[in-house]
Design a protein that fits this description.
The complex is a heterodimer of chains A (about 800) and B (about 325). Chain A has about 800 residues and is mainly β. Chain A is about 0% helix and about 55% strand. Chain A has a 26-stranded antiparallel barrel. In chain A, strands 18-21-22 form a three-stranded antiparallel beta sheet, with no helix packed on it. Chain A has a two-stranded antiparallel sheet with strand order 4-5. Chain B has 13 helices and no strands. Chain B has helices at about 1-25, 55-60, 90-95, 100-105, 125-135, 145-150, 155-160, 175-180, 185-190, 205, 225-230, 245-250, 270-275. Classes of the chains: A mainly beta (about 800), B mainly alpha (about 325). Chains A and B meet through strand 11, strand 12, strand 13, strand 15 and strand 16 of A and helix 1, helix 8, helix 9 and helix 12 of B.
Chain lengths: ~800, ~325
């Protein structure tokens, strides 16, 4: 999308809006495009631009127009709702005023409008819906706009009211294929369940759905959401006290890409979004130079206008008998339930002495959810169990029968968090810090169980699955020391050590301990160069329980059998990280910086016990998961000002992300021969490399004419390395002779050119051109919504959203006027 | 045993706190403790050290943009007794600078007491103390010991005071200020799936409090998840069936600044799921068929839903948790 640029935007903010003109950035003299991580003690920081008299105006109006052309503009504009080709009108305003500083009065006001876009005839189309779920989003006005008003008497009271909109058109692209029509039925009058009737249980005119017969029923639906957000905040100050309160209401409407498991491995549909989120805050704060204290109460409430979505089954039945069924002909897909949260937060800061400070933060809260369950709904199946409409195998086990029912969870999560820290100058050259923090969550809910898989709600060929609350208590104690080795060169050594204890209920690792230590050495290297080197090591330990987390809640123990894999974020892990930073403070006309960071994590999984109990595993090898991952980032950032009024900024960043996942199959990793039976161990290596570079230049060509250019590019490459441990002369199943996925490459090119001309003292005109191109060859995105089980087969595997890899190629031409008065 | 360790740790911490307090009690400055970082104190102040003419003296030399832009800002509202202009004017922030004025009269150059740029720039703690003397409120209460403070950033490292508009406080230009140091996040913001940071729609301060916070990574709330729930409240739950890594930390699966993978995922989704679910017995183990499972690629004898479009989420679509009685495996 286009945002006409007037402001002296800092490098790489390539989408500065038209209404940035309304901000008086032309009078800014930032130091600005220089990279400044620190101000070295002995460095010279040069003024960024020559002195210019400031225009004595407080008000601005901006009005412009833009023309968008190219391919797949919808994808290009997915973050701002400007998804259509053609001409739009865009504007902004700013009205600012305050009593003169010398007058003794304190009134101020500030009214701003940003990205006030007008489109015509553009609507986020309605999606699959029935009479309850229909949602039309009118995106004509301001899909990305904001209006904000601030008024008050400085030092006494203040009000802030505003509106802003956030539009997002689709997860990946702005439309998906689905066979579900707009009235809760299948497209083209396709009968659900292949035409079989339920009552009486006779075989109807069955249609055998194949890729050929189902494909014509696929229709394209645009997806997207829009948030409309309103807020009102106020504060009142008296003496050292500040009382503040605020309300915020957000409505989010539209649809999102989603999929549902039926007999096919996923059926894409457009999920309705009708969310309301309200928030209320109130606080009281006491501030003096020595003591600061605050108490806050926050209440947040989420409401979903829809409980569930009814989805008819697009399933064909090849065999039916008079005794088959009854079958459910549709599924009920649950949507996010209503919830609310209340938090009470306290904060305290106290300076005991000039070099000793105590800081305390604490929070206690409740997160609540008691929404009505959607009706139980499973997959269609020829079995008269899972498809049974009279499926009641979901029980409330509350043993004390506290009057609760099986209709809602009565879910309450108690949250308690806090930290305390004391900082002090221990000696003239040594500073110290001690801190302690905790984070706890404890969930109360009804005790529920559901039977899965068998013909009746009991243990007959059935599995009991229990609701498992996620509780934890974490504690961290940390000590830090900073030794100022040499003040004149700002040379210092900072070391810290922390220990964390985490206890989780119903988790693979009940108790984990993490030790972490780091050291940082920083110093001026010469007069203008600041360097900082940091090393960090952490070591997490804990015992892995290889079992499901489901068990009798009343008994409190998990089952002893389950999947031989470990949750990587819980299991023992060692991590090392090195960070290097160097910054060259403005040295004459040149400044810059270099950043490098490498983080490496190694995960360890203990052996799987084979207890010889029926139902336990009988596998050789270790439970696995991600074995190792690392992230490496490096790149310079340079600024050059060859003359007054001419600035260049150049940056480059290389980031490399790597994951090594291992898994456990029927064969051990040590097995080098063929494996009989099911798959062997597997290995998946994922490498993601991204090069990002940008150059921007600004030139005050004449006192009236300013030219700007901004170019950015991003090249990404994802490579896969897969092996399944099984090699055979001729592959007959998918886990044999595995060849890695093809590489995925993405390319982004983005160029903006702007000319800003001052027609008169208070009138400016801007002309802007932008070209943006993105290309991606992700094989995962195939423009074929109906996918078969084999490459040339007709048996349906999945009904996908069916969008191709994301690509766009867009040009935007715009012009705008700004009037100051 | 575990309880003993906790008690020992807490007891040690308490003893250390007492030791520090006792040690510093003997070092307490007789002057009132100002709200500054404990590492540095503000210079001593007395009326005799301030220039006689106040700002009129300063403006005699420094009366051009950008210096005098500050007169159009909240800092120069004399009706507000807390504002610098209502106290010692320029010297409220730059410190008593009579010596700086008299130096010129005597032909010698003496810097102001607090210098914010140039070869004689004051230490970061001193420069920050000038601001914290007024601005250390609830939002900035945790500045001391915060990552930015530890890395020697001062308030003026990011804020421009002598300007009618402070770029870092404007939504359209804030990210560029942060990206001057956070180059990794800048690069990630260019990747296909990203929070619209560069577009100014979601900006750094929507999630982070750069002045210090009670949570990790300077997030505004006490935890990453609570910060995410501010905008994504539909994920908050609690749900009937909860997916443990979701409730533990959103960052177990997502990388919030940008990713080449869809939906801000850290890794391709089927591999990310096999980070934890890595056994054949639960269906997520294996190489997911490799290249032969991709429709239209090579000769594809074994199309795998696990390699296509939404991958594992083709079926397990309620991945953030489900409130359906049949949502144990996140199908419903």
């Amino acid at each position: 999308m286009l945002r006409i640029v007037f402001a002296l935007a800092l490098a790489t903010s390539c989408l500065t809006p038209v209404a940035a003109m309304a901000q008086d950035t032309s009078s800014q003299q930032p130091e600005t495009t220089a990279t400044q991580a620190t101000e070295p003690a002995a460095a010279t920081a040069e003024a960024a631009a020559p002195d210019k008299p400031e225009v004595p105006t407080n008000n601005e109006i901006t009005l412009g127009t833009q023309w968008v052309s190219g391919s797949n503009t919808g994808l290009f504009g997915r973050y701002n709702g400007q998804i259509y080709k053609g001409v739009d009108v865009i504007g902004g305003f700013s009205f600012t005023g305050r009593d003169p500083g010398e007058s003794g009065q304190t009134f101020y006001y500030d009214l701003k409008g940003v990205d006030l876009l007008v489109q015509t005839g553009r609507t986020l189309r309605d999606h699959f819906s029935d009479h309850r779920l229909r949602s039309d989003i009118n995106n004509n006005l301001g899909p990305e706009s904001s209006i904000d008003l601030r008024i008050g008497n400085q030092g006494i009271w203040g009000l802030d009211a505003g509106y802003n909109a956030i539009t997002y058109t689709g997860n990946i692209i702005n439309s998906i294929y689905t066979i579900n029509g707009t009235t809760g039925t299948l497209n083209n009058g396709l009968p659900p369940w292949g035409g079989a009737t339920n009552v009486p249980m006779v075989r109807g005119a069955v249609r055998s759905y194949t890729t050929a017969t189902l494909s014509p029923a696929e229709r394209l639906f645009a997806t997207g959401t829009r948030r409309d957000i309103f807020h009102l905040n106020g504060k009142y100050q008296v003496g050292h006290w500040t009382i503040a309160a605020g309300v915020r209401h957000e409505h989010k409407d539209g649809s999102m890409e989603q999929s549902l498991r039926m007999n096919y491995a996923g059926v894409a549909f457009t999920m309705p979004v009708d969310y309301d989120t309200d928030r209320f805050d109130i606080s009281a704060a006491y501030n003096t130079p020595q003591l600061q204290a605050a108490l806050q109460f926050n209440y947040s409430r989420f409401r979903n206008g829809n409980l569930a979505v009814t989805m008819p089954f697009p399933v064909s039945i090849s065999t039916l008998t008079a005794s088959s069924g009854p079958f459910a002909q549709s599924a009920l897909y649950s949507l996010p339930p209503d919830n609310s949260a209340l938090y009470l937060t306290g904060m305290l800061g106290y300076n005991f002495a000039p070099r000793t400070r105590l800081t305390v933060n604490g929070r206690i809260g409740l997160e609540l959810q008691n929404d009505t369950f959607p009706a139980n709904s499973a997959d269609p199946n020829l079995s008269n169990t899972l498809g049974n409409p009279a499926f009641h195998w979901f029980d409330n086990l509350n043993s004390r029968n506290q009057g609760t029912t099986a209709n809602s969870p009565h879910d309450r999560a108690l949250i308690y968090q806090g930290n305390v820290a004391i900082d002090s100058g221990l000696t003239n050259d040594i500073d110290g810090r001690l801190s302690y923090s905790f984070d706890g969550r404890h969930v109360h809910l009804n005790q529920f169980r559901v039977w899965i898989g068998g013909p009746s709600p009991d243990a007959t060929a059935n599995t009991a699955v229990f609701v498992v609350p996620q509780n934890w208590f974490r504690q961290t104690a940390k000590a830090e020391l900073t030794y100022h080795l040499k003040r004149s060169s700002n040379t210092k050594l900072l070391v810290d050590y922390s220990v964390n204890f985490t206890h989780r209920a119903n988790a693979q690792v009940r108790n984990a301990t993490t030790h972490r230590a780091s050291a940082q050495l920083s110093s001026m290297l010469g007069k203008s160069l600041m360097g900082r080197l940091t090393y960090e090591h952490s070591d997490r330990s804990g015992h892995i329980i290889y079992g499901t987390a489901w068990g009798h809640l009343e008994e409190g123990e998990p089952e002893t059998f389950g999947t031989p894999s470990g949750a990587y974020y819980l299991v023992p892990m060692k991590s090392d990280s090195v960070t290097l930073r160097a910054d060259l403070a403005p040295q004459g006309k040149f400044s810059g910086g270099l950043f490098l960071k490498y983080t490496d994590e190694r995960f360890h999984y203990s052996s799987i016990p084979n207890n010889g109990v029926a139902g336990d595993w009988n596998l050789v090898g270790h439970g696995e998961g991600v074995k190792r991952d690392y992230n490496f980032t490096v790149g310079p950032d340079l600024n050059w000002r060859p003359s007054d009024g001419l600035d260049f900024h150049l940056f480059y960043t290389y980031e490399r992300i790597f994951f090594d996942n291992r898994g456990n199959g029927a064969c051990a990793e040590s097995n080098t021969g063929n494996c009989a039976g099911s798959a062997g161990y597997f290995q998946n290596k994922y490498t993601n490399s991204v090069h990002t570079a940008g150059l921007d230049a600004q030139w005050q060509a004449t006192p009236k004419l300013k030219l700007s250019a901004d170019y950015a590019m991003s090249f990404g490459s994802v490579m896969f390395g897969e092996f399944n441990g099984v090699t055979v002369p001729v592959a007959t199943v998918s886990y044999q002779n595995v060849i890695p996925y093809p590489d995925i490459k993405s390319r982004l090119y983005d160029l903006s050119l702007t000319a800003d001309y001052k027609i008169a003292r208070n009138v400016e005109w801007a002309l802007m051109y932008r070209f943006s191109k993105f290309h991606n060859n992700d094989w995962n995105d195939l423009a074929a919504p109906v996918q078969a089980t084999t490459d040339t087969g007709t048996t349906i595997s999945i009904l996908t959203p069916g969008y191709p890899p994301p690509r766009y190629n867009v040009s935007v031409l715009g012009t705008a006027f700004r009037l100051r008065f | 045993m575990r309880g003993n360790i906790y008690r020992y740790a807490l007891g040690t911490l308490a003893a250390a706190v007492c030791a520090i307090l006792l040690a510093n009690a003997s070092l307490t400055d007789a002057a009132p403790a100002a709200a500054q970082a404990p590492q540095e104190a503000l210079p001593a102040t007395s009326a005799a050290l301030y220039s006689e003419g106040g700002s009129a003296t300063c403006l005699g030399c420094h009366n051009a943009s950008p210096v005098n832009n500050i007169m159009h800002t909240a800092h120069w509202v004399k009706g507000d007794p807390r504002a610098p202009a209502a106290q010692h004017e320029c010297e409220s922030c730059h410190g008593p600078s009579r010596a700086h004025v008299e130096g010129f009269e005597n032909g010698t150059f003496v810097e102001p007491t607090i210098v914010f740029k140039g070869p004689h720039i004051s230490p970061p703690a001193v420069r920050s103390a000038a601001c914290l003397n007024c601005h250390q409120d609830a939002t900035r209460m945790n500045w001391t010991g915060s990552p930015h403070q530890r890395n020697d950033l001062a308030c003026a490292s990011c804020h421009t005071i002598h300007a009618t508009t402070d770029l870092v406080r404007e939504r359209s230009t804030q990210a560029a200020t942060c990206f001057r140091c956070h180059s990794q996040q800048r690069a990630e913001s260019f990747e296909y799936s990203h929070h619209p940071i560069r577009e100014g729609i979601v900006i750094c301060s929507d999630c982070h409090n750069p002045h210090g916070s009670a949570g990790p990574k300077l997030v505004k709330e006490f935890s990453v998840n609570q910060t995410c729930y501010n905008c994504h409240a539909e994920k908050r739950g609690p749900m009937l069936w909860e997916h443990q890594p979701v409730r533990d930390n959103c960052l177990n699966c997502h990388t919030p600044h940008g990713s080449t993978e869809a939906r801000l995922m850290k890794e391709r989704m089927n591999f990310l799921c096999s980070s934890c679910h890595s056994a054949v017995s639960n269906g997520s183990g294996g190489a997911f068929g490799g290249a032969h499972s991709v429709p239209g690629n090579l000769a594809t004898p074994f199309v795998s839903a696990l390699a296509n479009q939404r991958m594992c989420l083709n079926c397990h679509s309620e991945i953030h948790g489900s409130n359906s009685p049949n949502g144990a495996y996140f199908f419903r």
